[in-house]
Amino acid sequence: MPMTTPRPHSRQPKQLDAGIFQAEISSFALRLAAEGKAAKTIQTYTEAARWFAASCLPGLADWEQVSSRDVQRWMAWLLDRYSSAYASNQYRALQQFFKWLAAEHQLPDPMAGLQPPRVSQKLVPVFTSQELTRVEQACAGRSFAQRRDPAIIAVFTATGIRLSGLAGLRCSDVDLWQREITVRGKGGKDRIVRIGHQAARSLDRCQRARSRHAQAWRPQLRLGAGNREPLTAAGIYQMIARRGRQCGFSQHIAASMVRPTYPQLLLATR
């Protein structure tokens, strides 16, 4: 079957009209929800199935007609337009759907025996200690943002927390006396991470400035500057990119350079 071709080398718009195949995809979503899967996981898995059905299955009448060649053709199409890591993620999401479908309807699994795309390894640049010092100096000052930003970067580098986890931190998650932060990870699982004295000091300064913020009544720890609402993960990324540009780092690597620094700094935070 011919592939439905969106704009080359762009992830949007996806073709997500699964047509007659939507009923099974909806049942799959219900099963994932009943298993307690996170909403983002459900969206990722079901969008992959819908995208595959919309792109590769026009003209077919039933899932039983899907073959391994259909899956391989879709993977080749993805690899021609996206990174190998993105194609691999789509493969694994679709794999979960077909495993469920095979068990639910006693159908052969068209992905049985297939292998996911090989993901090419990329070297991720990290901040050196001198570069981290430059970023901290770029945040120097007494304004709310100048107290908040170094605290965000300090926690980011000291814990290896994800952007989404950092954005979701609440004031009640921070124990400065014990130098501990409760972090919610994937699947809603909590874990406690330790921070060093410098990160605790930055957080303390941030919390003092936060107490005078117009949105201080909110439970979220990270508030926007100018009395705006809490920062999202995208807002934190933009802040780090902006601080990186102040130090001469290019925007597209500024935020990616922070989290990998965590293993290098781990010993210094204990």
Keywords, please?
single chain, 270 residues, DNA polymerase, domain 1, hpI Integrase, Chain A, 2 domains, 11 helices, 3 strands, 50% helix, elongated, disordered C terminus
Concise overview:
The protein contains eleven helices and three strands, in the order αααααααβββαααα. The protein has helices spanning 22-34, 39-56, 68-81, 84-105, 129-138, 144-159, 163-167, 197-210, 233-246, 251-254, 262-265; strands at residues 174-175, 180-184, 190-194.
Describe this structure in words.
This protein is mainly alpha-helical and 270 residues long. The protein folds into two domains: 87 residues, DNA polymerase, domain 1 (Orthogonal Bundle), CATH 1.10.150; 141 residues, hpI Integrase, Chain A (Orthogonal Bundle). α2 packs across α4. The longest helix is centred in the middle third of the chain and has 22 residues.
User: What name is given to the CATH topology of the largest domain?
Assistant: hpI Integrase, Chain A
Q: What is the rounded distance between the termini?
A: 58 Å
Q: β content, as a range?
A: under 5%
Q: Structural class, please?
A: mainly alpha
Determine the number of helices (DSSP H or I, runs of at least 4 residues).
Answer: 11
- Give the averaged pLDDT, no decimals: 82
Shape: elongated
Q: What's the structural domain tally?
A: 2
